[in-house]
Amino acid sequence: MSKPKNDPDIFGKAITAFYETGDDEEITVHSPDFDDDVIPVPYLFRSYKEMPRLEQKALQLCRGKVLDVGCGAGSHSLYLQEERKLEVTAIDTSAGAIDICRKRGILDARNIAFEDLSGEKFDTVLLLMNGTGIVGKMRFLDDFFGQLKNLLTKDGQVLIDSSDLIYLFDKDEDGGVWIDTTDGYYGELTYRLSYKGETSNDFPWLYLDFDSLYLAAAKNGFECEKVFEGDHYDYLAKLTLK
């Protein structure tokens, strides 16, 4: 999802401030569906040892030429480049984040949206920190899988994580959950970010349950395997072309 030209570079400004001066003021996350939350900026600079086991597993599974989508401050890319000695392309729509990725030593860091990348093939496409989020809405899943086909080598893999928000709903006496589908898929959320007096535009973000990912993958010619399951409805999936 490309960032509108008038949208302030919230992540870029926060990442730059922390990297250059140690300013750790948090990014605030706003959603009409939830109370405000925060993103601690130092967390974006975490080392491999500080990463959740799901992320560690994903980094262990990476192979060949890697595309790190939504790389942020570049912690995943840096580990893959320096410790795993893999060729990594790190991309993000935040110009400020990419500038810091380069200063941290990432050799190929680009300020480009996932859907705008073309003419290259990768052995691993990595989408972490709720990688399904960039899809935005369920109706864009086919386009997302189409772009994955454009970017993957014949034997390539996609490593993507998400969470099933079903835990937010109350269970009935039989353990079932009733969801009002008239409002669309329950994992479609809208967010905006604020930092130091600036606020971003609203943007859609998709939390996708594994069964829905599996079905969408099958529809688009992909095998889908759950390779890690976290402690709180989160999972890591591996997608490969049939």
For the record, what is the CATH homologous superfamily label of the domain at 51-165 and 201-241?
Answer: Vaccinia Virus protein VP39
Shape from CA axes? globular
- Unreliable segments (pLDDT under 50, ≥5 consecutive)? none
For the biggest β-sheet, the strand order reads 5-4-3-6-7-12-11
- CATH architecture descriptor name of the domain at 51-165 and 201-241: 3-Layer(aba) Sandwich
- How many DSSP helices? 6
CATH topology of the domain at 51-165 and 201-241: Rossmann fold
Overview of the structural elements:
The longest helix is centred in the first third of the chain and has 12 residues, at 10-21. The radius of gyration is 18 Å and the shape is globular. α1 (10-21) packs parallel to α4 (95-103). By secondary structure, it is of the alpha/beta class. The chain has a domain at 51-165 and 201-241: Rossmann fold (3-Layer(aba) Sandwich), CATH 3.40.50.150. It is built from 6 helices and 12 strands. A hairpin with a 2-residue loop joins β1 and β2. The mean pLDDT is 94.
Q: What's the arrangement of secondary structure elements?
A:
Elements lengths: L9 H12 L5 E5 L2 E6 L13 H9 L4 E4 L5 H8 L5 E5 L2 H9 L5 E3 L10 E6 L13 H11 E12 L24 E8 L2 E2 L3 E4 L3 H10 L2 E8 L4 E8 L1
Parallel strand pairs: 3-4, 3-6, 4-5, 6-7
Antiparallel strand pairs: 1-2, 1-8, 7-12, 8-9, 8-10, 11-12
